Automatic annotation (TrEMBL):
It comes from Streptomyces lunalinharesii. The keyword Transmembrane applies. Residues 1-13 have a biased composition (Basic and acidic residues). The chain crosses the membrane at residues 39-72. Residues 1-25 are annotated as: Disordered. This is DUF3040 domain-containing protein. It comes from the Bacteria. Keywords: Membrane, Transmembrane, Transmembrane helix.
Length: 89
């Protein structure tokens, strides 16, 4: 950057003091829904059944669907990130 650019940026920064910028609103996080482990087990069982059916029938769409369901179940099995961090402290 040229010295002129630095001067222009400094002048621009002086026009807008840091107090002029509004702060983002403080939001209270919404309460999480109760964790339903039975639903996750149901999704996992369905994923395994779809995967096995996809392998038995050699059908790519069933394989892909089973993998997506397995990924969804794995995502739901893991605890929320904030809960895991609080436990470590």
């Amino acid at each position: 950057m040229s010295p002129d650019d630095h001067r222009q940026l400094r002048d621009l920064a002086e026009q807008f003091p840091p107090e002029a910028a509004p702060y983002p609103p403080v939001r209270v996080p919404a309460p999480t829904t109760p964790f339903r482990r039975w639903a996750v087990w149901l999704i996992l069982a369905t994923a395994i059944a779809v995967l096995v059916t996809g392998v038995a029938l050699a059908h790519g769409l069933l394989l892909a669907g089973g993998l997506v369901l397995a990924g969804l179940a794995g995502q739901r099995f893991t605890p929320p990130r904030s809960a895991a961090l609080d436990r470590d402290r």
